[in-house]
Write a structure and sequence with these properties.
1 helix; mainly beta; 123 residues; 5% helix; single chain; seven-stranded mixed β-sheet; four-stranded antiparallel β-sheet
Length: 123
């Protein structure tokens, strides 16, 4: 059973940067497609960034050019580097993993989720 644990959330001013981490246990990240999602109260969880097992990446239009997903296989950790933060980036951010990249991108039946970490961006 894969378990995911996010860290690195916090409060930043608009324009600042923040890096989220997602550490995996019980499984090897390189064997899974991984992704980052975010959710605000009353809204559905939305896809932010994803990486397949070949390390190809895919981003939501709203974060393209500002956020970068990466993976450190030695540490079994996935990161989300967030630059030029905006107040609308405020959300709880979740890490996810699934054997199928399409499931991650489309948020369909993803097998593994972290508990979430809060990111707040002030104007």
């Amino acid at each position: 059973q894969v378990q995911l644990a996010e860290s690195g959330g916090g409060l930043r001013q608009a324009g600042a940067s923040l890096r989220l981490s997602c550490a995996a246990s019980g499984g090897t990240f390189s064997n899974y497609a991984t992704g980052w999602f975010r959710q605000t109260p009353g809204k559905e969880r939305e896809f932010v960034a994803g990486m397949d097992r070949s390390s190809r990446t895919y981003y939501a239009d709203s974060v393209e050019g500002r956020f970068t997903i990466s993976r450190d296989n030695a540490k079994n950790t996935v990161y989300l580097q967030m630059n030029s933060l905006k107040p609308e980036d405020t959300a709880v951010y979740y890490c996810a993993a699934d054997p199928v990249f399409g499931a991650v991108v489309a948020n369909l039946g993803i097998n593994y989720w972290g508990q979430g970490t809060q990111v707040t961006v002030s104007s």
